[in-house]
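Annotated sample (chain length 209).
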Amino acid sequence: MAHRGSYAKGIAKREEILTRALEVVARQGVRGASVKVIADAVGLSQAGLLHYFDSKEELFTEILRKRDELDQIASRPDADDLVGGFLRVVRHNAEVPGLVELFSRLAVDAADPRHPAHDYFLERSAGLRAEMSASIAALSARGDAPAGDPEAIARIVQAATDGLQLQWLLDPSIDMAGTLETLFALLRAAAGDGSGGGTHAAGSGAASS
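Output written by the structure step:
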């Protein structure tokens, strides 16, 4: 029983660390969110903090997982509100620049298969694309989205979102949600004029994100 209690306390402490670390990164950005700063926020030494994570990179990866978990609870897109749910997440991201910066920086580093975040980004991208593809297919079936390959269209939306985040980090005056609304309006227009085939062709060569 003592071992089980100790394990439960460890899980609870790890969750506390991730919750506080989210706040620190959102408020202070990547540069301000050192292991020391995060450790101080939860009353631990740096060594004590890293007892719960294998490395700083793993800690930051788990911070992003926690962010995804909270975003999913707060605003999960579905077939009936794909655009609304997606844009709510994007608008929220504009309020937490530190987390957007962490995501963008880690995404580049994770291109190395040896990086602790590599599998996270692959799995996250595939999961989001599958969910979005299913929603797009449902919308397409009732004439509210182009008739092209749903996965290709989902890749276009992912690529646009990731690219806009990088542009926004350089120029915070960019309206990410407003720009994506324009993209969704173009997709709706393509559905209305029957040009879904053209959308498919454009998407077939889109880079994965």
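Annotation: The chain has two domains: 1-52, 55-203.
Annotation: Residues 195-209 have pLDDT under 50 and may be disordered.
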